[in-house]
Write a structure and sequence with these properties.
Blueprint lengths: L1 H12 L2 E5 L9 E11 L4 E12 L4 E13 L5 E15 L21 E12 L4 E18 L4 E18 L5
Antiparallel strand pairs: 1-2, 2-3, 3-4, 4-5, 5-6, 6-7, 7-8
Length: 175
Amino acid sequence: MIKKTIITILLALVAVAGQAQTSFDLGEGCLNVIDVHEKFNNERFSIGAGIGYNHHEKYKFSAIPVYLSTHYFFLDRRFSPFVNLRVGGFALFNAKNVGTNEKYSISKEKQGFSLFMSPSVGIKMHITPNVGIMASICDEAYLINAFDTNKNDYNSKLIHDLGINVGVCFQIKGW
């Protein structure tokens, strides 16, 4: 029991980090740090919960998404392509451009339902039977109440960021 607790704590400290951006300028894009734990239901499908941190430079806010994550692996082999879907909500904080009535401004009003969704495709390659690496391309979407320059008012807007995730995966027998 102590061994499993120590392993769980160590795995919780290992996060998958990726730099997502909409352009290659240093001032654009966002930073994501994600930590997920999933359990395999069968040889190809896993489901679990995750929490992350995301900072959007263009809209000047930070978010903590909490979500349900699923992976479907197309092959039950050491190398496999996969699809992943993360769906949940997020807490918005540290917003800098609020109520300015200009492009990329966030409303002063309560943001309402905070939808987070991130579909991705990628590959998994096991180095050993229990340790592997994963790489994927994802589209992270956040539903926010932002200023619409065409309507000159605040409306719900789904903002997207293209991301590249690279990380280490651990598969522990008996969990």
